[in-house]
Amino acid sequence: MISTHPLPSIAILGAGSMGGAVLQGIVASGLATHGVTATNRTRGKADELADLAGVTSVALEVEPSGNVRAAASASIVLVGVKPAMVPDLLREIAPALRAGTIVVSLAAGVTIATFEQLLGPDVAVVRSMPNTPAVVGKAVTGLAAGSSATAADVAVVRRLFETCGAVIEVGEDQIDPLSTISGSGPAYVFLLIEELTKAAIGKGFDEADARLMAEQTFIGAAALLDSSGERPAELRRRVTSPKGTTERAIAVLQAAHLDEVFAEATDAALARARELAQGG
After folding, report:
1. Region 228-247: what's the mean pLDDT?
2. Which residues bind NADPH (predicted)?
């Protein structure tokens, strides 16, 4: 059961696409009763967030020290800037952080060790890996605790990310593998929808009808899976009548060794994640 206990004060440094999605989830939950401060480089981006309830939106081009002020006043600090910008930001805010602050990384490829080295022992670090469905409250977020993060620290960060979806707690060595499944996974689904749409067009449907069929089939199947509580294999069995048309189609897909294709694809993504972590 998801907790409805209020969240402590929050700062989101770099409330761009992912940080902004998490911000939307926090605001929609109504749990941010102690306020949220969000920073962005430009006034235009900051103005887009200014009307959100309980949010103080800061433009760094107007207030250059805005990240420091936001971090100093927060119990949880989310770091949402681009990975290359993380070390400089951490050096900037480190002197201002209160002891016991929880710093949460949204930055792909930046290790907990980097955060802990630059922030010191009085700050708890948690590394997160959300995915883009956070925008609609349907994220999967992986969380990995740093060396000084307590169970209570992880629990409050979990509550924060549960405002925009589901949460999985893993060791840091599983963050990159998780990113190849849930992080990149929406792109895999979109690619499958693209290809099914092309197949429909190839059978004589116009693009609008082809898109409607393909997209709503995926949306409907996902909703059925969500509401039924059944395993995908069981739902597939129910659609696949013996000696019927679906069975013939499934046989073709299985003959293409989709299990091997997905294993190879996710292995390739993992290899690239490790290259990026090493600065490649």
Report:
1. 97
2. 67
Query: Can you tell me the distance from the alpha carbon of 245 to that of 260, in angstroms, rounded to the nearest whole number?
Result: 24
Query: Torsion over CA of 177, 11, 4 and 181, rounded to 10 degrees?
Result: -10
Domain ranges in the chain with CATH number 3.40.50.720: 10-172
237-242-245 Cα angle (round to 5): 90
CATH class (in words) of the domain with range 10-172:
alpha beta
User: Can you give the pLDDT at residue 2?
Assistant: 59
How far does CA 252 lie from the centroid of its chain? Answer: 34
pTM: 0.92
CATH 1.10.3730.10 in the chain is located at: 185-277
The reply to whether 66 sits in an annotated binding site is no
Residue 279 known to bind ligand: no
**Token duo for residue 105:** 């990384």
Here the tokens at position 217 are: 């089939």
258 labeled part of a ligand binding site: no
- Give the residue with greater pLDDT, 2 vs 218: 218
Cα separation, 280 vs 274, in Å, equals 8
171 annotated as a binding-site residue: no
**Residue 16 annotated as lining a ligand binding site:** yes
- Type of residue at 8: P
- DSSP state for residue 179 in the 8-state scheme: I
The conformational region for residue 257 under phi > 0 = left, psi -120 to 50 = alpha, else beta, is left
